[in-house]
Amino acid sequence: MEPRHIVAGQFVREEKVAFSRQLRRDRTPAERLLWSHLRGRRLGGFRFRRQQIIEGYIADFYCAETGLVIELDGPIHEQQAEADGHRDAVLANHKLTILRVKNERVLNDVAGVLAEITACCRQTSPPTPRHRGE
Q1: Coiled-coil segments, which residues (predicted)?
Q2: How many folded domains does the chain comprise?
Q3: Which pTM does this prediction carry?
Q4: Which is it for strands 57-63 and 97-102: parallel, antiparallel or unpaired?
Q5: Residue 67 is part of a domain; what is its CATH number?
Q6: How many CA atoms lie within 13 A of 80 on its CB side?
């Protein structure tokens, strides 16, 4: 299955959609900062979505063209490592790349995080078709 086709056509319960919308409104400072650099194709021309539902899970940020899921981890993730591992396995089963970044790192080294995201996108991005004559 191609990463860009995972979201289309999936069944999503209305409660999950409502929760995803709530998460978009109630962003953490790290999510707010990272989104300001990802939105509108600002990072390398890649299109990201935030709070994207995939297989019943809500990904913090998702780039369909590269199959990259970015998860920002706050203190709660220290208590839910097993659940996060299961979630990562489900997403990886769809050939998605999961990049986990601690909130503190986004807040203290956003340039480094953006460089890592860019490298992941370039590594997982399909080759750009060449035009005739190139």
Answers
A1: none
A2: 1
A3: 0.77
A4: unpaired
A5: 3.40.960.10
A6: 10
